[in-house]
Amino acid sequence: MAVKISLWHHCLQAIRSRETPKIQDYQRAENVLLTVLERVQELDSRFQVDYSRDLEAFHFALRTSEDDLTMEVPFWVDSDALLVREATDGHPEGRRLQENSPSPAVYTLGVPRDAAGLERWTTEDVFSPSESTECQGYILPSKVLGRLKDLLVAAIVHCKHHCLIMPGSLNAGNLKEEDLHMSLLVSSGWRMIRFNIIPVVKKNHKILHIQRKPLAQGFPDGSLEKVQRQGADLIPSSSHHWRISTDNLITKLLGIVGSLQGYRLDSLSILDRVNNENWREGGKKAGLTFDQLKMVLLWATELFPSTEDWRDLEGSVYRLLVILLCCLATKNLPHFLFPQYNLLQGQGLDLNSVYQQVEKFAIQPEQFLKIHVTHLFPSHPRIDNGIKAFLQLPANNQSYWDTAYFDVLLDKFQVYNIQDKDRISAMQNIFLKTKKLENSAS
To answer: Can you list the residues of the chain whose pLDDT is less than 50?
Structure first.
């Protein structure tokens, strides 16, 4: 047992040894981009610089994966003064993107006819007039993105000409207009980091209706309400429509998770490392993203509420693993704030292949955790193959999406270390129930 535990901690130590250099890399690249965005703000004060990004740097340090990062460019506007209306015109782009949005609706962003102080948002470069009786017209994502791209190019040229950024830090030629955002490679000194630059309308307090039950005891009291008070951020959903972005809400929740005792964030780091280096072959293959693994951690924090659940590193990782395996087996990873939205849908992944990779790790993790060739020693499978049928139970009966069901899975993987009598009793009841189902099916 000592060898097994030391291997988990050795892996964690290797990840932690890189945290400070990674934060420094991130901050160098971020500083370059912030310098450019400061020039954008000077050219057009409607676009602001967001300096409140400490949590993003911390989350970047947790990661092994090299997924693109997001840089939001907030509007200088009181979003509650705008007319935010659910789109009803049936625009085909809006319908297509609505299906892949954690919010069930797309919105138009109107400027009221009687509004004062919004004149700057009624210029032709971002605005389309309307004959509506209640609004002058609409702020269009397509026009906003076009204006922002022109500003970024001008700002990059200015910053390079005046030596405000280091030579080679970035190039206007690398600025690409992707689907509903701009993409830009920025140098941190020795690595290139890709930022997706997205215009955002911050903190609308009228449209955010989180569609889930109150958080369970795994989170401090009032956590959901605290996050909901942040309001909804709106980002482009199509050329005409906007949608709710939950990125900042999820980041706030992860900040709360990080304040709790135990190995929650460490287990996320280990799982992301294994995902990137093994399941995705060093990032060469498509696969699970860090954002999807973050969602698994949030569910694990709620479903495993006891401090006992998170005292042991190995057991903490398995609390994420059993949820991830269940989601892959059922092909459904619910969004934490909008559970009706499936984060695995429409991703183009071979979920059966991903499941097999994750199951191999769960059954015999030691071979995936080795840092050096000397870390080769015998290990025995924790469980026989054939657990997938049990993992699919929540697909047919949502009542299984519960602590007792996942406790049974932890017990199967030999990492159940809870002493609470009520939880043990609930787990045993679920185990007997599933046994009866197996017997009736055979």
So the answer is: 1-5, 90-100, 442
